[in-house]
Write a structure and sequence with these properties.
504 residues; mainly alpha; Sodium/glucose cotransporter; globular
Length: 504
């Protein structure tokens, strides 16, 4: 099989891009008269489309590239964070989402202001903008790496970054929230369909098919020669591992509660739904569906492990597990299917990045620009400014992605980036949602910044000690495993500090 892209692959990709453009053109025909129309499609999106859009936002190129890499190089342990995901989805659907819906907000941080003041609102919005910009840039890096590898180096990494962001801007800037919701529906179907096609194609080329894949996963060999079972879920339920299982479940709950309930990127999909009650069901359903989706991509990784044992040329010279799935697409899949899989990877990146751009533009427009520089401007003028902010954040994505080119292990890197900000953001939101405490906004901001500074300092210290081989077991475990507690710490420390500092 020749590497690189053939004419049939290019045709598939052009058809994919043309479909995106057509949906964006169709969505742009409904002229947005207000920022609510532009960002939330006038709250007119059907609930099934909302569900697909929300899932497309959750599933990114990190899932398509990083999760198979996790299944290939490790095991199914990553799935145990989904135990917390389900609980988080139910919590947000029952508590946080109704809070935002009652206040009829465009930016969820408007609701925070109504309970805790403008300073807290700006702090939460600023935290979101910082964490979402960095985390979404990692997704852009992931898709650009895939494009670079699958094209056989014909497309340079910088060109891949610019092309990806440019394509997203073409349909999002014109159509706003309506275009994003409907393109997300198409992209969700494409990425799940592409993953299933890839799985069956891999199985067809592993001697013995699916039974052989399962057998290889049960008798996997680590680099040090030890044998382990990639599917052994019960391993984490042994007494010696219950602490790790509890950590993954607790981290999954707090991390997903922050993502689903305090991240404008996620909540914006749900606020655009035309039925508030069904929007809550969409969120609960998404939490359940995340388990089989994670299992699908992890099993692709195990299948690639089995394939590599029969075809060792796949991994010859490979130094980064993130490359295993792109390599397979590039060297083993036939033309046509190669283009389909590349379109699926692109849809995974675009389905999360387009909503990220929309939410960043929403937060900046509604929380910062409108109250200050845009005070007194008409809604039509604000919509025009919002489109400029789309382009501005797209340019930031390009710059940051080029700076992050050499970063590896993208799946966990994305989680680590938000570990310092998600906790304080969730903590402040919980205070606004669940209490009637009166706390000065500057004190809340101070608590949030203190938590971020402390956890970031701990993380950098642990990394330095590990890199320089002077780490004790505490610092090694903190760097490898217990960094997940940063989110939990921030989510609990900010409410505790607010309780102490509340006005009587």
């Amino acid at each position: 099989m020749s590497p690189g892209l053939g004419r049939l692959d290019v045709l598939v990709l052009l058809l994919y891009c043309a479909t995106l453009g057509a949906i964006g053109w169709w969505a742009a025909r409904a002229k947005a008269k207000t920022t609510d129309d532009y960002f939330l499609a006038g709250r007119s999106i059907p609930w099934m489309v909302t569900t697909a859009s929300f899932l497309a936002t959750c599933i990114s190129a990190l899932t398509f590239v990083g999760t198979p890499a996790e299944g290939y190089g490790a095991d199914f342990r990553y799935m145990f964070s989904n135990v917390g995901d389900i609980a988080a989805a139910l919590f947000v659907a029952g508590v946080l989402l109704p809070f935002y819906q009652r206040h009829k907000v465009t930016s969820i941080y408007e609701a925070v202001e109504r309970k805790m003041g403008r300073t807290t609102r700006l702090a939460c919005s600023g935290y979101f903008i910082l964490s979402r910009t960095l985390a979404s840039t990692v997704r852009i890096v992931a898709i650009a790496k895939v494009l670079e590898v699958v094209s056989g180096g014909a497309l340079a990494f910088p060109l891949c970054v610019v092309a990806t962001v440019g394509a997203i801007l073409l349909y999002t800037t014109a159509g706003g929230g309506r275009a994003i919701a409907w393109t997300d529906l198409m992209q969700f179907c494409l990425l799940i369909g592409g993953a299933i096609v890839a799985l069956f194609y891999i199985a067809a080329h592993v001697p013995g098919g699916f039974p052989a894949i399962v057998d290889a996963g049960r008798r996997a060999v680590r680099p040090d020669g030890s044998v382990y079972n990639k599917f052994n879920f019960l391993e984490l339920l042994k007494p010696a591992n219950l602490g790790l299982f509890a950590l993954l479940a607790v981290w999954g709950f707090f991390n997903s509660s922050a993502a689903y309930g305090t991240d404008q990127d996620m909540v914006q999909r749900l606020l655009a739904c035309n039925d508030e009650r069904k929007a809550r069901w969409s969120l609960a359903l998404s939490g359940l569906v995340s388990i089989p989706i994670s299992g699908l991509f992890l099993f692709i990784g195990v299948s690639l492990y089995a394939y590599s044992r029969a075809h060792p040329e796949l991994i010859a010279g490979m130094t980064d597990n993130d490359h295993v799935f792109p390599r397979f697409i590039l060297t083993a899949m036939p033309h046509g299917l190669r283009g389909l899989l590349l379109a699926a990877v692109a849809s995974a990146a675009m389905g999360s990045s387009d909503s990220a751009l929309a939410s960043l533009a929403t937060a900046f427009t509604v929380d910062f620009y409108k109250p200050y520089w845009g005070a007194g401007k008409s809604e039509a003028e604000l919509v025009k400014s919002s489109k400029r902010f789309f382009v501005g954040f797209g340019a930031l994505f390009v710059v940051f992605a080029l700076l992050m080119r050499d970063l590896d292990n993208l799946l966990w890197l994305a989680f680590r980036m938000v570990a310092y900000t998600y906790g304080p953001l969730l903590g402040a939101t919980l205070v606004a949602t669940l209490t009637n405490w009166k706390v000065d906004g500057r004190k809340v901001l101070g608590l949030m910044l203190s938590c971020t500074a402390l956890t970031f300092t701990l993380a950098m210290t642990a990394k330095w000690r590990v890199d320089h081989h002077v780490a004790s077991s505490f610092w090694t475990q903190l760097h490898a495993t217990y960094w997940r507690l940063y989110v939990v710490f921030g989510a609990l420390a900010v409410p505790a500090g607010c309780w102490i500092l509340r006005e009587s």
